[in-house]
Amino acid sequence: MVAMNHELLLGWWDTAARDLPWRRPDCTAWGVLVSEIMLQQTPVSRVEPIWHEWLARWPVPSAMAASSQGEVLRMWGKLGYPRRAMRLHEAATAIARDHGDVVPSDVETLESLPGIGSYTARAVATFAYGQKCAVVDTNVRRVVARAVHGAGDAGPPSTKRDLRDVEAILPSSQQDAAVFSAALMELGALICTARNQKCADCPLFAECAWQLAGRPAYAGPEKKAQKFAGTDRQVRGKLLDVLRGAPGPVPKMQLDVVWNDITQREKCLVSLLDDGLVEVTRDGLFALPGEH
DNA sequence: CATTCGTGGCG
DNA sequence: TCGCCAAGAAT
C-alpha cells in the first residue's frame, strides 16, 4: 500500500462504527477524557456501564475534584489498574484549578496532566476537539503494520516511529483526519483484530500490503506473555478488593487473610500505601484514601 | 528501552 | 484448562 485510500475507510466507518456514548455529538471533552482513561488496556464492554455512572455523578472535572480519592476508587470498581482512577482524580483537580474546569485542547498541555500520555493526549485533542493529529494505539499499530508494512503484526512500540508512520497516512483535511483516526482504531477493534481477523469484511482488503504479500506470519521479536497468577498485581488487587468491599476502615487481619506469603503481602501493602491507594488511620486501621 | 501495574472473558 | 488479549502511562 503506497498511499492509504482514505475513502474506503471513511465509507466503512459510516456503516460499521459502533454507537458508543463517548462518540455522540453531545458528549463533552470531559466525557471523552474519562472514556480514554478507562479504555486503557480495558475492553469497551466493561467500560461502558462504569462510564455512564461516572458521567452522571461527575459531569464536570470540578465535581470529581470535590470527591475523595476513596470515593473515586469505589466508583472505579474492578476496572483494573486503579492508579488510573487516582491519576484521573489528580487531573480533574488540576483542570478545575488551573484550566477553568475546561479540559485542555492542545496535546502539549494534555500530556502534562497526570495519567495522560502520548496516546490519550492525541485522542482527546482529536476526538473531543476535532484537531488533526496522529493517534496511535495498539489497534492502529496493528492495522498499519499489516495494511501498510505487510507484516503479520506490529513489532515493539516506538513512540516516535509509530507517530511518523501514522502521520504519513493521515488525510490532509482536518475534518477527515479525525474520522480517519477513529476509523483506523475501529478497524483494528472489529476487523483487523489480533487473532481471528475478519479480512473478508475488511474495506482495505484489496490494497492491504499484508494480503498482497500472502499474509506472512509475524516475524518480529517474540512478545513476552504477561503473567498474573502469583504476581504482586494479583496480591494488590486482592488487598484493594477487601477495602472496596468494606464500608469503612478495616483491621489488618482482614487484609492478612487474602494472601499466605507474608513477605509478598507486606511488600504489596507498602506499595499500595506508597501509591496512595491505601491509608492507615490513627487507630492503625487500613482504609481507602480520604475515608477516615 | 524494558517492566510494572488489574481484571475478566474467550478460543 | 490456560495463554492471550483488551483505546497505555510512568519509571
UniProtKB/TrEMBL annotation:
One Gene Ontology molecular-function label: metal ion binding
Pfam families, alphabetized: HHH, HhH-GPD
Ranges where the HhH-GPD domain occurs: 38-190
The species this protein was found in: Lentzea jiangxiensis
Family as reported in the entry's similarity comment: Belongs to the Nth/MutY family.
CDD domains: ENDO3c
SMART domains: ENDO3c (SM00478)
Protein name: Adenine DNA glycosylase
